[in-house]
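Milestone 3.1: sequence recovery, worked example.
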């Protein structure tokens, strides 16, 4: 289960829906199907499988204050304790917006909202791969390269997963290969 917690209202309200579409499509390309539900639905029902939590924040600077080794240019990060990858990650929404050169959130028009959400979804997919596989490993190209360009984050054609990425995901989460759903939960949504 993927729990996305929006710490701030992502304006315009279309951004979470576009983000969910992009993240779902990226995970489907990896061979993992997703299902989105509200946080309330997730707490009222039980879901089988691994749970990972992705926090979407517009205050990445405060989060970085507790992570002195984190590069100031990082758009997102997965939490770790030594070599162990924790099932928690953070996406700095403001850093992503600034990096892809999108207008301030309150001024977004529909096209920009789609590009912004596309970038958020791709950054989130990258971090989810780290959490699902519990690996800090990066690829030489594709969605799991250490650094993606603004164009790669917003282009219509998504950077691809390498065959090795698919193998790692299915080895780490074999239930997904058997057709089980990875449920993606978007929490604290104000557009419901």
């Amino acid at each position: 289960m993927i729990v996305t917690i929006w710490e701030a209202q992502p304006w315009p309200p279309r951004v979470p829906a576009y983000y969910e579409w992009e993240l779902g499509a990226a995970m489907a390309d990896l061979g993992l199907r997703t299902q989105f539900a509200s946080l309330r639905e997730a707490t009222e029902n039980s879901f089988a499988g691994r749970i990972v939590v992705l926090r979407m924040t517009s205050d990445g600077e405060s989060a970085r204050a507790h992570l002195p080794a984190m590069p100031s240019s990082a758009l997102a990060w997965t939490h770790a304790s030594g070599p162990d990858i924790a099932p928690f990650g953070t996406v700095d929404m403001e850093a992503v917006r600034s990096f892809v050169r999108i207008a301030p959130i309150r001024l977004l028009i529909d096209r920009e909202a789609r590009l912004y959400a596309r970038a958020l979804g791709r950054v989130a997919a990258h971090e989810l791969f780290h959490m699902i596989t519990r690996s800090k490993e990066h690829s030489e190209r594709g969605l799991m390269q250490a650094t993606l360009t603004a164009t790669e984050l917003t282009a219509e054609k998504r950077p691809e997963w390498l065959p090795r990425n698919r193998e790692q995901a299915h080895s780490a989460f074999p239930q997904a290969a058997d057709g089980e759903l990875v449920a993606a939960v978007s929490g604290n949504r104000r557009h419901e």
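The first strand starts at residue 2 and ends at 6. Residues 41 and 47 are 10 Å apart (CA to CA).
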